[in-house]
Known about the structure:
Blueprint: H1 2-17, H2 19-25, H3 29-41, H4 43-47, H5 51-70, H6 77-90, H7 96-105, H8 109-119, H9 130-155, H10 157-171, H11 180-208, H12 211-220, H13 231-254, H14 265-294
Amino acid sequence: MFTTLVAVLVALALGHVAPAAAASLRRFDGFRRWLGWLDAHGGRAWQGAAGVALAIVPPLLLMALVAWLLRGVLFGLPALLLGVAVLAWCWGPRDLDRDIEAIIDADDAPTRQAAARNLQSAGGSLREDVPSLVEATVLNALRRWFAVLFWFLLLGPVGALGYRLLALMAESPMRARVPVEPLALAQRLLGWIEWPVAQLMAFSMALVGNFDTAWKAWRQAHGERLAGGIGFLGAVARASVNAELREDAHDYTEAGLLPVWQRLPDLRDAMSLVWRMLLLWLAVLALLVIAGWVT
């Protein structure tokens, strides 16, 4: 738990202090070359469903071996550093906060379109209407932050790396190197391993926002179904943002004030929700760390 807490803080600091360096470190060129090699030499196994295992299992076995070798060495310090490095490496790859600000600050259509493409780099609708951008914000928060954090908590460095490689294989431009059958399987697997993360995010959104609104949107989007999809998360985010904006407008009206004009308030509120969710997760982690020290 302590490793996770430190690693998240390092990843966030790296993205804010040196975003260009962080993005360059997180390009995963080695995995791109590995997919290219499999495409050239993988044969029939690469063309079938086993292609997902061929692409992902060898790097994970190597990571598991390194983690096992470092276990118990120098009071666990090398293992701690490995965890911090892997989580910081798998975080992102782009800084979500900066991508949101780029859209809000864009002064012309081409600049805004380029900024929207950066925001939607990890998935989501390519439309530029406000509801689609709100949905892209929470979906990218899941794929850049929360899913990596969740699987790191469950499986350590192997979990974080496994999620990132599968997401790259299924949703990034690297998917152009993947044959049809393994690509379809990778996308289905990604939906299933993202499903519990999306459920936790929806619950977190309800806790840090309007619980009744989030609950109703989750039910209407059939979030209770064990379907291996995360479409309900966008519905919960849109409903939560709309509810908060209505509450803000109501507060201004009751106080006899005019609302302060802002560009894309929906997008600002969506990012605020994401930060509040992350702070909630980190607060729970911190409490678990403190409880572990006390006991």
